[in-house]
Design goal:
- By secondary structure, the protein is of the alpha+beta class.
- The chain has one domain.
- Helices cover about 30% and strands about 35% of the residues.
- The chain is built from four helices and five strands.
- Strands 1, 2, 3, 4 and 5 form a five-stranded antiparallel sheet that branches.
- A hairpin with a 2-residue loop joins strand 4 and strand 5.
Length: about 130
């Protein structure tokens, strides 16, 4: 399998997981998209063999407190939430590279800084040869 990194630029991932999805997520949670303390972006990190590593970046919004929010429970919310739609998202990411997912998992929230938390998404793929 060739390196998938060129397929997963920030612009390409913003098309697959658009910034508007953050608004829909908070609208579903709180009834108002403006109540969210962060924006969600999907970013590619690396590929090693048949394992791909992405991160959901949780970026603090101006005037909001990311550290004050309950980001540590988000992996369980993301797994079930229809706006995030993880199973469909994993399928779409794999389709971009012409491979099938064999499994995937969402890791625990990592605090990188006061303004950035991230949630790892690991996808194991099988080539369709």
């Amino acid at each position: 399998m060739t390196d998938p990194a060129p397929l997963f630029t920030d612009a390409a991932l913003d098309a697959i997981f658009p910034p508007e999805r953050t608004h829909a997520f908070f609208d579903a949670l709180y009834g108002d998209a403006e109540d969210g303390a962060y924006d969600i972006r999907l970013r590619f990190h690396k590929a090693e063999g048949n394992t791909w590593q992405f991160f959901f970046h949780l970026l603090q919004r101006p005037g909001k407190c990311l550290a004050c929010n309950l980001t540590y429970g988000l992996p369980q919310v993301f797994i079930r939430h229809p706006v995030i739609a993880l199973p469909r998202l994993v399928e779409e990411l794999c389709a971009q590279a012409g491979v099938r997912p064999t499994s995937w998992n969402l890791g625990s929230t990592q605090e990188i800084s006061r303004s950035l938390h991230r949630i790892p998404l690991t996808i194991h793929v099988q080539t369709t040869s």
